[in-house]
Amino acid sequence: MSEFFTSIFGGGMGSMYLEAFITTIKITVISTAISYVVGIPLGVLLYGTSSGGIFPNKVLNSVIGFIVNMIRSIPFIILLVMIQPISKIVIGTKIGDDAFIFYLVVAAIPFVARMVESSLKEVDAGVIEAANAMGSNNFQLITKVLIPEAKPSLLVGGAIALTTILGYTPMTYLVAGGGLGQLAIQYGLYRFQPKVMYVSSILLIILVQIFQEGLSFLAKKLDKRAKNS
Amino acid sequence: MIELQNVCKTFPVSGGSVEAVKDVSLKIEKGDIFGIIGLSGAGKSTLVRCMNLLERPTSGKVLFRGVDMASLSKKELLEKRHSISMIFQSFNLLEQRTALKNVCYPMEITGVPKKEAVAKAKQLLELVDLGDRLGSYPSQLSGGQKQRVAIARALATDPEVLLCDEATSALDPKTTRSILQLLQDINRDMGVTIVVITHEMKVVEQICNKVAVLDNGSVVETGPVKDIFLSPKSQMAKTLILPQNNEITKNMSQRIIRIVFDGQESSEPVISSLSLECHTAVSIMGADTKNIGGKAYGEMLLQLPDDEVSVSRIFKYLEDRKIGFEEVSEDE
Ligand SMILES: Nc1ncnc2c1ncn2[C@@H]1O[C@H](COP(=O)(O)OP(=O)(O)OP(=O)(O)O)[C@@H](O)[C@H]1O
Ligand SMILES: [Mg+2]
Q1: Which residue of B has its CA nearest to A219?
Q2: Among residues A168, B223, B307, B314, which one has the fewest Cβ atoms lying within 10 Å of its Cβ?
Q3: Which residues of B fall within a CB distance of 8 Å from A135?
Q4: B107 CB less than 6 Å from ligand 1?
Q5: Considering the entire predicted model, what is its pTM?
């Protein structure tokens, strides 16, 4: 048994996995966080400008909608190549973890914006009407009614975003970044050490579970609509 | 307090338009509990939403204390809405906030200091009998309790008017009565003018002093509740007041009258005295009596005997006693 573990984690492999594990968490969490910082306002804008929204604006809605859909329809690997020059300007480099975070963020923002939009759409129209009848301005409506009321749904969306972004992290091998995905591909594909690939993949699966279950649990716990809370 | 002048509201729909409110003029005075009654789709919600400009009238004017609501800037309108509160059939509480925090919401947005807001919210929840449920979330409250929270929330900004859109329609009869009682107390003790939207005559009878009958977007009859209850003129008012009479009269060849009690006669045994004095028997086809504004009101459907002499004796008896009655014609 211990031989088995030594064969997997021995000879410096243990610290290699740990480092990759942490790198992956870092890349995923930072990318998701930045995507939300931009994605939430964008989602609010998409929701608000839609017909029947709180500040309908057909033109703005179509323009943002078009850009969002366009970016979403470009496969990540192609998008990554396309925006490398922009990364050079914004981040200062085309490769490495920081550049990779930039690529992930650009790809994830439209996705996050759509998810935020759909979470906001779930907020009961009656509640919004009541808030309007009480004389809430748009800012109050967004910050005190829409987002707090949509919080459980937003958290569920957050779990989806986090795990989806995690699923894209192996692409980092294209830009010489680090992490579990990179380990799996480098060792599995190029160095013919399938064991490393399997271990990295299992660690990725564990990470997905942690993100998914953790946020779902939080969403449930925070949702006051549930009878038992 | 609120005056509507020739208010029309038309909604564009695919392939045409819906005239939800047609040329409605109403005057709601300070201190009124004003009922607006009509069947589903009559345009009640649309009309009441015009009062706080949640819906902008297509034409016509909405005056609040003499001020044309449409002339206000966006900011002024939002401020006005603090004086015109609203409650709803579906309560529309913030699900992720406790009862206390729900009541605090209108004060939060008007910039009342937090401490003050919490103290006032507690006081209001006491008033609606929920002093012990401050920390409960809406999902933990019954319908009646949710509506009480909504009422407390509506009162938080010291409104002059409270608009109630089918506020009791989702509640059972007992809870309905207690909510209506609460509204009546608020009207009396706090001087809040109340507009009650409903499709139930019972609601109007219990608390309103004035009523407008809405039929297909138009006001077909308006006036003091007592007058309309005693002698409804429009077909719609009759339908709403006498839902049961239609079925009864349809299958009857006999003559039927509807007699109306308006408070003072309720202590007298009218029907038995009538039988005794007129030397005839009458059958009671239907009866419904209730309390309106503390007085007993009611109506009764009587099947008249066949001979004309007895009938005229009955009519005379009723006239002498100033009991309102009308013959219910068969084809209605
Ligand atoms: N936003 C809208 N767009 C199109 N038509 C509408 C809209 N709102 C209401 N209507 C129409 O206006 C009419 C009146 O609707 P309203 O909701 O005011 O009726 P109501 O008397 O409140 O009915 P209920 O008792 O069922 O609530 C209906 O025919 C309805 O279909
Ligand atoms: Mg309605």
Answers
A1: B96
A2: B307
A3: 77-82, 106, 109-110
A4: no
A5: 0.83
Question: Which of B7, B39, B44, B86 most suits a substitution to test ligand 1, by most atoms within 8 Å of the C-beta?
Answer: B44
Q: Would you say B237 and B253 are in contact if contact means Cβ atoms under 8 Å apart?
A: no
Between residues 125 and 164 of chain A, which touch chain B (CB distance below 8 Å)? 126-127, 129-137, 140, 144-145, 148-149, 151-152
Residue with tokens 């609509």: A225
Residue nearest to atom 22 of ligand 1 (CA): B45
The answer to whether ipTM exceeds 0.95 is: no
Per residue of chain B (332 residues), what is the pLDDT tens digit?
999 999 999 999 888 899 999 999 999 999 999 999 999 999 999 999 999 999 999 999 999 999 999 999 999 999 999 999 999 999 999 999 999 999 999 999 999 999 999 999 999 999 999 999 999 999 999 999 999 999 999 999 999 999 999 999 988 989 999 999 999 999 999 999 999 999 988 899 889 999 999 999 999 999 998 888 877 888 888 888 765 545 555 555 677 888 877 765 555 677 777 778 888 777 787 777 765 555 666 777 888 887 788 888 888 888 887 777 877 765 44
